[in-house]
Fold:
Amino acid sequence: MSKFSKLTGLFLSIVLILMLTVGCTGGSAPSDSSNGEETGKKEIKDIKIGVSVGHTQEERWQREIDMFQAYADEKGFELLVQSAENNAQKQVSQCENLFNQGIDVLILQSLDASAVAPIIDTAHQEGIPVIAYDRFAMNCDLDYYVTFDSFKVGVTQATFVTEKAPKGNYIWLKGAAEDNNAHLVADGQKSVLQPYIDSGDIKIVLEQWCKGWDPNEALKNTENGLTSANNDIQGVIASNDGTAGGAIQALAAQGLNVPISGQDADLAACQRIVEGKQTGTVYKPLAKLNLAAMELAVALATGEDPENAIDPTLGTWTKLNNNAKDVDSFSVDVMAIDKDNLYEILIKQDQFQKLEDVYKNVPKDQWPAA
Ligand code: GAL
Structure:
């Protein structure tokens, strides 16, 4: 009996020692940073997240910076934001500056998709993971990508215009060639346009990129298209609301109002839609994208599991290739908005715009019943 209890005691001691040993090594969670270093866990109040955006020219980007800030304030961590204002070189040096300030994770909205690889390389030398935000970072060892389905954006835009104008001369305004999204959007547009072009129903009289998504570029390009077609234009494919605004200005100067698309649900575009000057826009639920990026960034910074960090109701995980690797990507859905659903979705449901702002120039008796 006593021999038995001695053996049991010995066995229990061994189990206890083993448990303690395993417990100790298991205590420091493996880092999720790309270089696989072990950094251990951090309290959320001790983390620093860096955000770098290429520009703030469109309404959406300022909105998104405000959302990032509100989230950081609510959770009590530090957020450092830089905007390169359309200067790709500046974006590189601003990110270096963020690394020097000790950020734990970088959220990067690339100005020039093919010029940001050095940012990711430097980040990794410092053990900092990088999340591409909205726009892809090409040819690099990117850690994560949080985005919308840009191909679907393009399909939606071309569908708006071809449904209203299935035949005729078109001006095709693509986005900024340096932004990968612009290419995906153009691919989506092309998938809808090609059968019409092949059948001869639609003739593209001008096809042009708009550098920097600049409305003035869109204005100039549209003027050129109008001149070459003697103002005989039946539709304009514009890739975002800013460039749609430039094109509409050029059309209006010639007394024209033709079907035209957009993207971003900017206030000016929403006003044009309810006033019958723009056919539709593609709404990107920015709050969802923003929250997904923040949840992922916080998980990476605190050492939690990144794959389970994002609320699954916000979108879906997928893999997207950036010419160097298949990047773990989280994709948020987009929505077609026109005169018929603008009030319901953008104003009432998502409170993305306000009734009095959107309908500002419309007589009150024509406002939707609130
Ligand atoms: C794109 C983005 C659009 C639009 C555009 C202009 O990358 O997908 O939503 O905002 O940039 O900044």
Notes: The CA atoms of residues 210 and 217 lie 5 Å apart. The chain has two domains: 44-148+286-332, 150-285+336-366. The longest helix spans residues 2-27. The longest strand covers residues 202-209.
